[in-house]
Amino acid sequence: MIRFILSDLRRMWAGALVVVLLVALAVALGVAVTLQERGLRLGSARAADKFDLIVGAAGGPTQLVLSSVFLQAAPLPLLPGETLQKLSSDPRVKWAAPIGFGDSVRDQPVVGTTTTLIAETAKGFADGRMFAQEDEAVAGAATDLAIGATVVPMHGLAGESTHQHADVRYRIVGKLKPTSTAWDRAILVPIQAVWHIHGLGEHDAHDEHDHHGFDADAALHEDWSDAELPGLPAILVKPKTIADAYKLRQDYRAAPTQAVFPAEVLTALYATMGDARAVLAAIAIGAQVLVAAALILVTVVHVGQRRRQIGALRAFGAPRGAVFALVWGELMALIGAGVALGYALGWGVSAALGAGFTAKNGVVLPVGFVPEDGIGVLALLGFAALLAAVPAWRAYAEPTVDALRA
Amino acid sequence: MLALSVADLSVAYPGLAEPALDVAALDLGAGGCLAVTGASGSGKSTLVNMLTGLARPSGGRVAWGGVEISALGEAARDRWRAANVGLVMQDFHLFPGLSAVENVLLPARLARAASVAVRTRAHELLAEVGLSRPEQPVETLSRGEMQRVAVARAVLREPGVIVADEPTASLDAASGAAVADLLLSLAARLGSTLVLVSHDPRLIGRASRRVTLAGGRIVSDEGAAR
Ligand SMILES: Nc1ncnc2c1ncn2[C@@H]1O[C@H](COP(=O)(O)OP(=O)(O)OP(=O)(O)O)[C@@H](O)[C@H]1O
Ligand SMILES: [Mg+2]
User: Fold this and answer.
1) Shortest CA distance to A82 belongs to which of A71, A73, A74, A90?
2) Distances in Å between the alpha carbon of A25 and those of A28, A337, B4, B206?
3) Which among A4, A10, A319 has the least Cβ separation from residue B82?
4) ipTM here
5) Smaller CB count within 10 Å for chain A: N or C?
6) What is the pTM of this model?
7) Which B residues in the span 15-74 are in contact with A, Cβ-Cβ below 8 Å?
8) CB pairs below 8 Å between A and B: how many?
9) CB A5 within 8 Å of CB B97
10) What's the distance, CA A72 to chain centroid?
11) Each residue's pLDDT tens digit, A363-373
């Protein structure tokens, strides 16, 4: 029986190949769309995971999230420096850390922040240590920098650098473990350095003797309770409890500040992207219809080609069950191979697209199957099994001689 | 082993004014040997199709051993044929991609009846009809060799009825005689009822009963009385 199927497939290998590829491509399209959509959803949710509450200057919440969570290069309005002091001393706040953008190194954003933020949001150091003075920096896992490298920041956001900061150099002293977020592409420096480079925070109480700018050896001060702070683009806040988080958001909602839950903003963003998702869903449904059409076409052609053979099997006394098994088995083997190949192909395409996305944005899109996908495969194979059974069963509707003449 | 009884059998094809086959009565005792002959287009293959249940007649009845096969449905006729008939068709219908011996064995294999004894017998039969390379792919065989494979396949499972449409048409005198010997001796040994369609006078001459068709009707019937 197996020999018979194999010899038949060998004889009609070109047709069999077309059948397998047709099914595979149709399946791959559906799989890729599903995986891509899932990856985007999970990947961005994961990227926002450590960002409980972000406080920024009043304005668009979406841009605030894109800039701070995904480090998208865009100018943000600044919020008053004392907001950070107020938040830091708020009993409902576990910690609050400034996020300062503005410089870049070869398209990699330089982010000014604090040791607390790095310790709390990163997954630890792969190598080296935390920055401890003004000219030290910590590199994200996906940067092209190794420990000991020195970098000269360009003023201007990644992609639009205008001029180099002369005589400012950061030394990379630590490299972080990957977090699968956009921050993997960032070079993290002390916020104090950013301020000094840009001549901000002139009246810094701790730095009275040297307030003219960047000082490579200066120690870091991260307690700003009695300093006068410059304006900030964003502050990441870790509330003590969920209730605190909601109260804080309530308190900082009104101008001149705004407070957002990134997860909530992302959800809203997905809702507004409803059209795009509807298109994706339509494509996915289209792909399913394509799969179904491919299966029907394959079945009809396959059995049409073999009508004479089926007639001969009947004429020479092959039992009905055996003929059914041959026709059905061969079709299912082809369709099964197509489905398997399609899933592999769809996964490969998704993984490649995801890798491209990661290279560009640092956000890792988790491309993978979930147990529910198994139900999809079973449903597809079940449909194919039923479909393949129709011609196998229909073979008995005509007299044997008619089949033999086909 | 089964007796044949045909009554008022008629087969009409659309577009033909006269029926392609019109047989008022044809009876053959169990274990009998019938040769059917006639000009090309006289309805011989059509008769074979009706006798083996490959198709249903437009009218009348065909019964074997009391089973009226002309009244059975497609699947039931297939089952009846599988159980009772060894068939050699005019254009063989061998399965390309398989070897000679695999073709002989295929129906038995699909019926899960290919025991060691049956496999041995398949090789013996091929040797008996004069085929020396049982492993040769069937599509590379000559027409005469294909015919011998078809005959071996028909008799492999020792059927109660053997029906052969032109089993010696492509063979020279010597191999034709060998195939005829095989069919006749096997039928005699098993007690099978044998129906042979042929133009070959040497084969026809060996049958005890000889029927001639013309225009779908029986025009001569020799040896019926015996
Ligand atoms: N499906 C069909 N439709 C129309 N006419 C048919 C069909 N099958 C057979 N015929 C006609 O019926 C007649 C008998 O055909 P059949 O094949 O039985 O002849 P035959 O005696 O076997 O001839 P040969 O010796 O050439 O094999 C022929 O005239 C043929 O054209
Ligand atoms: Mg004929």
Assistant:
1) A90
2) 5, 12, 57, 62
3) A319
4) 0.88
5) C
6) 0.70
7) 49, 52-56, 74
8) 80
9) no
10) 15
11) 777 777 888 88
